[in-house]
Design brief:
Elements lengths: L6 H13 L2 E2 H10 L7 H13 L3 E3 L6 E6 L6 H12 L22 H10 L1 E11 L4 E18 L2 E7 L8 E5 L3 E9 L8 H9 L21 E8 H9 L7 E11 L4 E12 L3 H9 L4 E5 L1 H10 L5 H4 L7
Antiparallel strand pairs: 1-3, 2-3, 4-5, 4-8, 5-6, 6-7, 9-11, 9-12, 10-11
């Protein structure tokens, strides 16, 4: 049996268990109501094991013979996003002559089940990859890579695979966009102990927004490449987006508010304090800059100075709070 059964069924089970404890019989009933095909309670048990393998913490409460989802952690909603991709990939082809669809074609998502398997079960993999050369602004030729996969991450509708490349003599940790990967092969299992500082590297990659590398020229109190406590003030308008979809799994929306001047709207607004624990990188800076007054960076001070200096002070209004109301 495949390690990754019907994705829609897994999403339904996950959502049901996140509300309250459910017995196997209840889960069977709900799935049948949705028109799902399922054999027996043993199928439910296998699906629960798959969800646990994917990182979902599911307990068996003593009061009922059933299950309860208590924590999703880092992999929160990855399964649902994958399910969304599968649904989108089934849309009929269209010439799209009016340019109404601007989302890039979904490339590489068919590899996700095997990539999850490779990450979870420590399989070395081989694939072809067409990179991007920043100097020429053109794509490079295909190269064949053999790597140890460490972690999958989805950010802004793109999936990234963080890996260790044993054949390199330096900078062994590399990240690949799966939309540029092809001809994936699962090879033999590898010993995870062969990856130096693997646990630390995985945690640092989790604490990045997106897949961009840590800032090479940014160093705060000898914490280069390390997570920092990020505090931003967010307008009520932008807060709705953060509530609907977390920017990062460390997101914490506090109850603290204050009135600040939104330079874009040229009027005072109520802002809410939102915090993160992130490794500063360009994906984080892009979010702050693109906020256009809906996001005001308060901490760390060193990152405010870095952004202001890097962009010649052009975005000082975005990152520096000059409002008299405190």
């Amino acid at each position: 049996m495949s390690k990754y059964p019907n994705i829609e069924r897994l999403v339904l089970i996950k959502n049901l268990l996140s509300v309250r404890p459910r017995s196997s019989a209840e889960l069977l009933s709900h799935i049948e109501e949705k028109g799902g095909l399922i054999e027996s309670a043993r199928t439910i048990a296998r699906d629960i094991k798959v969800l646990r393998d994917l990182g979902y913490e599911i307990e068996n409460p003593t009061k009922i013979r059933g299950y309860l989802l208590v924590n999703t952690g880092y992999k929160e909603d990855l399964l649902e996003r994958y399910n969304d991709y599968l649904k989108l990939s089934k849309l009929p082809e269209t010439k799209n002559e009016d340019g109404l669809i601007t989302t890039p074609q979904l490339r590489g998502v068919e590899m996700l089940p095997n990539l999850f398997k490779a990450v979870d079960d420590f399989y070395e993999i081989e694939f072809d990859h067409k990179g991007y050369t920043s100097k020429t602004k053109k794509t490079s030729e295909f190269l064949t890579w053999r790597v140890f996969p460490l972690l999958l991450k989805e950010y802004q509708s793109k999936w990234h695979l963080h890996t260790y490349v044993p054949s390199l003599t330096e900078n062994n940790f590399r990240t690949f966009g799966i939309d540029r990967m092809s001809n994936l092969k699962l090879l033999a299992k590898f010993d995870p102990n062969r990856v130096p500082n693997a646990d630390e590297e995985i945690e640092l990659f989790k604490k990045r927004l997106g897949s961009a590398k840590p800032l090479d020229d940014y160093n705060y109190q000898d914490l280069k490449g390390q997570p920092q406590f990020i505090k931003i003030w967010v307008s009520s308008f932008y807060l709705n987006y953060l509530k609907a979809k977390k920017l990062h799994f460390t997101q914490n929306i506090t109850n603290e508010t204050k009135v600040l001047l939104n330079f874009a709207e040229k009027k005072e607004m109520t802002y809410t304090l939102v915090t993160y624990l992130l490794v500063p990188n360009y994906d984080l800076i892009k979010v702050i800059v693109a906020g256009l007054g809906d996001i005001i960076l308060e901490q760390p001070e060193s990152l405010k100075v870095y952004i202001s200096n890097k962009f010649n002070g052009l975005i000082s209004k975005i990152i520096i709070d000059k409002n008299p109301h405190r």
